[in-house]
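writing this on my phone so excuse typos. first protein, seq and then structure
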Amino acid sequence: MPKVQVNGIDIFYEVKGTGEPVLLIAGFMCDRTYWSLLLPHLGSQYQVIRFDNRGIGQSSIPNSPYSTQQMAQDAAALLDILGIKKAHIIGHSMGGQIAQELTLLYPEKVKSLILLSSLAKGNKRFNSLIETWGNLAGKIDLMLYEKLILPWIFTDDFYAIPEMIDQLIEWAINYPFAPTTQGIYHQSRAIINHDTTERIKDIHCPTLVMVGKQDILTPVAFSEQLAQNIPQAELQVIEHGGHGFLIESTAAVIQAILKFLAKFQQ
């Protein structure tokens, strides 16, 4: 599993499969493993690049402010090092914010864009919640932290599956590369300070905006704003699923992604 140095930090990444490149950008407090359920489907048809954003996983965790533009520059530098001139970009939540900035900064690198459970700018409720999560890191134990956050990520139906949430919490607290206090804090501020409201009209590549109908963290209205203001965007609302629909509704999400990407196969 290789690391490369970009913008003064180490970025941990992995590449699977062959075909057109697809870059996956994970969200807040999530490293590349968040995409694990989608990887077998994407990796059978595409060259899939997953990496850990700055502040998470096995990448560097600098104790200094982050921005989504800076994290987009990290992603672009990784593509350059790998010799990838153009890729399909998929970002979830904060990863979608990073993907927006990547597309705006380096439009020549982006063949298509998929924004999952993302947003152009947080409203006051959303920003207050993310600020609180950033402030709580390190002040309570990881188990309690997970118990506070997961109700915002998964639906009632998912909670009703016996022992599912307990298993997720156990995995999180035993994961050897769990989020750190400073990584959580700095990523939270990058999310809060992100604002592409006036600039997403300048995203001109084909774009799929997707959200779970039951997403209470980044609700459908956030995705509607993206789809209405990105010129070539289409919106798809997944009937069953919340913010964590990559885990909860994997089949529906991967079906929509593959259908969208198939348009570009030669």
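second protein below, same order as before
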Amino acid sequence: MLNIARNLIVAATLVGIVPAASFADQKVPSGNRNVEQPAIPGASVRRTKAGKTSFDLKYEKVRDLLRTDSSLVGKIKKTASAYGIAPIHMVGAIVGEHTYNVDAYDSLQSYYVKAASYAGNSFRFGYKDESISDFVGRPEFSECNSYSDSYRLWTCREDVWQKRFRGETVGGVSYPNNRFSAVFFQPFYAGQTFGLGQINPLTALMLSDLVHEKSGYPKLDEKDAAGVYKAIMDPDISLAFMAAVIRKSIDDYKQIADVDISGNPGLTATLFNIGNSQQRARALAAKRASGAANWPEENYYGWLINDRLDELEALL
């Protein structure tokens, strides 16, 4: 669910200002805050042109996949129920990903076949000659060792990367000025996400405990890159991680910013697209604390979901 498009959008993307008011844990109104669709990033436009297709055609393809595959829709409903979210949030994320980031396969079975093609492959997470397990074993990461849950552990490690390694030379090694996930967790090419849910490997590691708790899938290990890829490629497991991403976004906005986004699929789709829900919720909370009543605001990706909501809800 976090590639080039996600990184072009800053935290302010999710903050739209309305007249000042005092409220707590209030539901965000349904629909879009923007009358017109926000600009689509150039990378998404170029990728779609390179595939000799269009956003409309890609949207129709994934919509039709959902319309004709009752098995997939059944899995979505079951998974959404396990995570306490409405299934339209998962539909929105799938439609957004396959409209703007990748092209949908013709059937759910194609996703299983693609996942199987990675089985048994030998690869690792790392940068140059340093594996990720060796890297996070450095003294700089010692502050993270007190965290036992996967989300806080990997969030802490990502923060350390940002503060101490990104774009810096440490111990004679020059590290790229790029995201933690792009440098250490994508052995094939940067910006790569996989499968039905287009989940990033680092995101999967962060949410491993939640998915284990809710769905019973084995916890992930950064030393087992093939196991992580299996989880995000296999449609059944990938759906669980999608639901976990959405559940975490809803919880972050409610707990941190006192805003309930559970009734607005365009907002959860936006957060699925751009990630970092915790940081963005903090940014929104700061705006609210300043005295202005701020609603989160959808980006181009979430705008489409709210705009086509009646059609997408009919798929369920």
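Residues 235-257 form the longest helix (23 residues). thats all i got for now
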